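Predict the assembly for these two chains.
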Amino acid sequence: MNNTLDIDALVARIKAVLPESSEPIALHEPRFQGNEWAYVKNCIDTGWVSTVGTYVNRFEQSLSEYTGAKHAIAVVNGTAALHICLLLVGVERGDEVVVPSLTFVATANAISYCGAVPLFADSDKATLGMSAAKVDEFLVNHAEVRGGVCFNRQTGRRIAALMPMHTFGQPVDIDAFLALADKWKLPLIEDAAESLGTSYRGVHTGNFGIVSALSFNGNKIITTGGGGAILTNNEALAKRAKHLTTTARVPHKWSFVHDEVGYNYRLPNINAALGCAQMELLPEFLERKRQLAARYEKALKDVAGLRFFVERDEVHSNYWLNTILLDQQSMDHRDHVLEKLNISGLMARPAWVLMHKLPIFAEAPRMDLSVAEALEKSIINIPSSVILS
Amino acid sequence: MNNTLDIDALVARIKAVLPESSEPIALHEPRFQGNEWAYVKNCIDTGWVSTVGTYVNRFEQSLSEYTGAKHAIAVVNGTAALHICLLLVGVERGDEVVVPSLTFVATANAISYCGAVPLFADSDKATLGMSAAKVDEFLVNHAEVRGGVCFNRQTGRRIAALMPMHTFGQPVDIDAFLALADKWKLPLIEDAAESLGTSYRGVHTGNFGIVSALSFNGNKIITTGGGGAILTNNEALAKRAKHLTTTARVPHKWSFVHDEVGYNYRLPNINAALGCAQMELLPEFLERKRQLAARYEKALKDVAGLRFFVERDEVHSNYWLNTILLDQQSMDHRDHVLEKLNISGLMARPAWVLMHKLPIFAEAPRMDLSVAEALEKSIINIPSSVILS
């Protein structure tokens, strides 16, 4: 009976890690205890809440300094960042883009906005992200490179990009994806929406792809209300990103000329002001989140029927969402565990429903997705707010 | 020499209307003198800056109450509102949508986002907006209704919607557009991005279209930093608008199921908080803007070579941007007037470059656009901020 999941014991162990609370404990809530109010008040006092103002530049610079990426372009949310990343690497109508089936819907939607189609990839148990080995196996069997361009022989469509997502802040096996991108001539985009603060072999995530996307939604490690950013080390792409996200207007003192179909994706100054204050707190947030994860790890070590997901050796994770993985024989109890946790005032949730199961993506090409399907039944995210440590 | 434009006299007359200022006077800047601080601080203090929080509902309710539209759905900006409006009336890839050539690029871009094509329409000198008569004339010659659907015989494409824009807050001839929409079986969308506060025959703009779009960008009569809204009197469309703008997620306590390709277009709570405070000030803003316009009207009455644009009898305008129209024989001096005004510290700008002249819309169908072309050479917007009265 050693391997049998004891749900009551699990609830008790989690409760022991967390502070006493008469209110339900959120999965992830923001914390504002720095200069948020001072900076936002400054925006209101000067009247610079919108597109004019200095906080957007300052926020972009602090993102660039923190991540080490040469350029950061602030945008209205992570979905907008993903959309622009895809356009920047040249994704066009009718193309396919390789993405994990285990991801938030924004990853796949951004591909739809380009008129392209997601090619759903399986997961890697070791990273919770897309499996480079499974993608390679699929491409070996079904794709070919002609004239430096990768084609899916099954559908006849061009495969235009590779877009792994760093799940819950835990990065994919980036070295393997760099090799894969090189082998199959595929531009690499990192969906780093969840991984601000996470580095891989000492380099911040978002620096490995040609372009990368961050998110500062209300549930992320830092928040701007709604917001996101594009990271890149390529100056020309950075300029084009700024241009595309600001209606592609050609600079002029009064004339309105736009040289591309552009987007109204710029981040308002008032949201950037919040971001500047949050970035000042990020090192402390990161430390607190890692402390919380360490306490969960210890507390859940000998609970039968599950394991707590721990970063790999080459990773320094932001532990955005703490994750427990139910063993094979406990997976059938996932919804029961979720009910019990939520009823006990501990907000918990499963992974997203796999993208290939959504009717909107019923026609999308895919590979064997058995690992993703097992992970979907196994994953439970538990309370992860900075404030809990 | 009576009709010759005297630019120095024009500058002096405008200056006489405006307060003394050592700084250049902006075209349109926001004003925050109400509850902006209190509401935004409340967001930060409660941690509810993002998608959770009460200000979004409150802002939507105040928009609904003020405009008289049954439903208002707050979104991230006016461009997003236009995009969703087009989807709501069923615009699809390959369709055409009738829009004015004289408009901001967002109107036409939103059509591109749907994979549809703008059909550029001429302007009406009396309204500065799209000409219902010219559209009717074009449709009589080139379109036909088959099975309740309007087709462009020249291109073979379906014409899927009619989307006039209320230029600088001055509404189009709405009665004529309602008749046109009925005659040609075209859903009417109002691009009311510039017309919050403007009514037509006693009814607020945005109530005549099946759906309508508002904008609260930093240069608008009220601002949320960046923001917009969809107005509708149709409950089913309102529900679908909320669904499409919130990633089309099917409500569930933890499961993430999305039943359409959705968008991350919701307005963050912190921006909505700003909007709630600004809505409280709107009646005063409107009064001040109408006072400023009345003073301009008086001051520019007898300046040769131009006229100040005044609302028609059936209109109560927000006078978002005050507009002077150069006479035929003065139009060649437009850029000279703009230079002189800007050098004198009075920020002024021309109308947008006409959409059909932008290379990105070079292939778009169009009708005779002679009135729009004359207006483009004739229009100059002059300082219009609330604070100037």
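Chain A has a mean pLDDT of 96. The first strand of chain A starts at residue 71 and ends at 75.
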